[in-house]
Amino acid sequence: MLQTSVENVRDKAVKRKKMKLSHIFIHLFLILLAIICIVPFYIMIIYGTHTNADIASEFIFLPGQALLENYQSMTENMNIWRGFLNSLIIAGCSTALTLYFGALNAYGFAKYKFRGNKILFWFVLATMMVPQQLGLVGTFRIMYILNLLDTYAALILPAAANAFAVFFVKQFIDGTIPDEIIESARVDGASEFKTFNKIILPMLAPALAALGIFAFIGSWNNFIGPLVLLFTNDKYPLPLLVQLLQGYYGTNYGVQYLGVALSVLPIIIVFAIFSKRIIGSVAIGAVKG
Amino acid sequence: MNMKSSVLPMIMYCILASILFGCSSSSSSQEKEELTIWTFTDEARYAVEKFEERYPNVNVNLLFINNDNYLQKLISVLQVEKNVPDVFFVERTYWPQIRDIPRLENLTQSPYNAEEILEQQFEYIQAEEKDENGIVRGLGYQGTPGGFYYRRDLTKEFLGTDDPEEVSELISSWDKIMDIGERVVEESNGEIHALSSWSAINNVESSNIEEPWIVDDKLTIDEARVHTLDLAKEAREREIVAKYESWGPAWTASMQQGTVMFYPEPTWGLPHIFKNNAPETAGKWGLAHGPKPFSGGGTFLAMYKGSQKKDLAWKFMEFYTTDEEFLKELAESQQYFLSNKNINQELAPTLTSEFLGDQKYFDFFVEAGEQVSSVPQTKYDNDINSLWDEKVNDFLNGRLKTKEAMIESFKTEVGHHFPEIEVD
Amino acid sequence: MFSKSIRKDHYGYLFIAPFFLIFFIFGLYPIIYSLYLSFTDWDGFGQPVLVGLQNYQRIIGDFFFYKSLFNTLVIWGVSVIPQLTISLILAVILHEKFVKGKSLFRAVFFFPNIVTAASLGLLVGLIFSWQTGSFNQFLMSLGIISDPINWADKPNFMRGLVSSILFWQYFGYSMIIYIAGLQGISKDILEAAEIDGASKVKVFFNITLPLLSPIILFQVVTSIIGGMQIFDQPYTLTDGSGNPDNATLTSVMYLYDTAFTRYQYGYGSAIAFGLFIVIVIFSIISFTTMNLKTKQGKA
Questions:
Q1: Which CATH class is domain B33-143+297-347?
Q2: Which DSSP string do the residues of chain C spell out, in sequence order?
Q3: Nearest to A289 among C12, C218, C236 (CB)
Q4: pLDDT tens across C76-89, in order?
Q5: Where are the domains of chain B?
Q6: Which residue in A192, A251, A253, A255 has the most chain B C-beta atoms within 10 A of its own C-beta, making it the best mutation to test that interface?
Q7: What is the interface pTM, i.e. ipTM, of the complex?
Q8: CATH number of the domain at B152-294+375-417, please?
């Protein structure tokens, strides 16, 4: 009896040691992976502060002194802050449209039992499967017909029909908003749209916040849409400006690195502040989906 | 809470409404005439500035779009005829693609009578300004004969001279250049090369082809192109050429560091390539004639057929190609070699470049320009050129093992991309 | 009450109308118009000319269509398999109690996902460039190589690089989703299993994995739809060329080049529909195989 318990204890101690060792390895693995994730961004920032001649001659890991110089040559040909503004306008408006019309549509499907409700909802879901690029050429055409080529609207308006948003919000409504609330609003004499705008919409806030983050990131990073639909550099959002760096400064890596860094830094800052909320919303989106 | 919740939908409808109905921002021109010009090159800024000085009641709306996207944007607006600029700059590589688009103004007709302007220009440029039917569709303002820019310190060290005429004599054939290159690489322990890459050879040879890629809807490979290929292969094998990609950062760094001896480049290489990328090397450069005359690049001005400002547009085009006062200023202050022979000739005896060690470079290019022949091009040539270049790179870098395999692969690709072209 | 709500039901049409209006204009019309164009020859000037099935016939014999499809599949496959497996392992690790700094790791791993893909493509292109790339310089400063290697000239390497960017961008995202799924699994089940003496590995394969299968299916399907549309990363990495030897030319890049740089709008549209058919086939395959597997697992 006694022996076995001693062995047991020893066993456990060995196990614990093993565990500890494996814990260290796991932590090392995590740290290594984190470093791999960070290194390119570090290089980007460091290299943005060097001249092309420095960059061409050797590997660098410390900051240099050409930051201002690079910034000045970059601003000669492109206004990256204007790109930010453009991106903000496009992504902001798109997100707003996605949220409002997505919620409106989802509410319509969730709470009104009109004829064809199910079929139409399935139709909306099916559109999620269709890749955006399928209609690329046709999109160019319709924007031409509507005289929307080279306008922000060409990128913003289609956001009002976001199938994922409908699906996402409908799930949320089904789960959290009981019919009684609507019935009591009707008894109070509120019109259907007033009920939606004043009572339902605020109740959807948590879902909309999560969805909004998704929609905003998606629109902010959209590349092929503006590439096809915008002509004027002044209207270019950030991803296109970044791509232009190659053309304007193909021979100057310092400026290119700096441009990439400037396009990424604000995202880093925003993420540092809101990372929990952003990650949380991604998780919610996935589980609901 | 109530307030808040009604704000969002309000904003929504406002956004939608403003986008649908009132988005186009009205341009506020204060009685000034507005001219819209698109360009892919920043050198346009200088000309526009001077043009506005000359015509104070004109406001030029100059849009500088980078070369990467320019052609595509230009063709897009010409297709949909929306936001088309009144005047647009077109680079020679894709000029044939633009030239035949039926949205360009006929400049042969009056009141333009562009033929009169053409008479003052180099012959090789005149040929390119006209479309298939001989109608002038664009005006070139730039003269683009080429020469071998060389580092004087390097030629002195390895060839014992930095005199342009003596250097020209030493590099009058590719064989001579190859021999020099071999020696230089050896003596410098692989540090210094005669040329930066095979593109340097191509710069010269591609300007001496006789047939465009497409003749009678059939893919045609000019003998000169195959010859270039052989030269390039030899140069790579004998390490005459370094492996710097043209317009890459290593290429520009080589100018600063002095690791390449010769750069065959056209007139505009002086301000746009060398001064721009290696300003600290002023005075270290010279200019010599190479094995063959050549030209490179060039810019044409074209007018939109549906423009509402044709008078003004023409004024600008005329200003850029014939205005003596402006052109002299341009040539002198920007070191800009012109398409206008008369003015070039007038300046030739006096104009020197400090960057080139006080060499009379206008004189040099006037002489070179007379020998340059025009390069026949079709609208396919730009696309096919880049396919060809890709394949040559594949061949030189060893991924395509033989010349035959390379040409076969090239033909297949052309056939796939352009099914209307006959490929054997 | 009941009768009242019935009377209101037609309001539903009003609520869904704006969405459908916008969808018909900006979603459906472009697709139908593209379908129409796919039966025409059109260079953007003049009017489209009907050519019947000519474009589709051309696709069937188009080496580059298959090549771009092959590239897309390879790039996607090489990125998605580690993306879905490594992220699962990470999720399990980060779900463990003993791990320190969980939220920091989650944030760092997830971060590349929200960075603009175009920026990442360009950045990686700079780092791996031939003569002045920092990667080559790093190797040279360590003395591993003496001459810079022309990475951009190696088809498989460049494909791998695009895959790596995609992996880098999405493994954190997948991980977060798995973690959300893990949080949904009742702790009691897992603890009960451990008390029964099952090893962690056994618990993972016998309990966690089956319970996560709906989430895995979700990830596989979304990654197919997303994967077939790969464009931004290879486009900015190779400056739009899809080189070397068209090894990084993805299907959407081929579509884009055809329609918007060679102005063959008709053929470009046909490529889009060809691609769509491929996506549908793959989605159906993955649905049925996953369904079969889960059914087998249950039986």
A1: alpha beta
A2: -HHHHHHHTTHHHHHHHHHHHHIIIIIIHHHHHHHHHTTEE--SSS--EE-TTHHHHHHHT-HHHHHHHHHHHHHHHHHHHHHHHHHHHHHHHHHSSS-SSHHHHHHHHHGGGGS-HHHHHHHHHHHT-TTT-HHHHHHHHTTS-SS---GGG-HHHHHHHHHHHHHHHHHHHHHHHHHHHHHHS-HHHHHHHHHTT--HHHHIIIIIHHHHHHHHHHHHHHHHHHHTT--HHHHHHTTT---STTTT--HHHHHHIIIIIS--HHHHHHHHHHHHHHHHHHHHHHHHHHHHHHHHHH-
A3: C218
A4: 999 999 999 999 99
A5: 33-143+297-347, 152-294+375-417
A6: A251
A7: 0.82
A8: 3.40.190.10
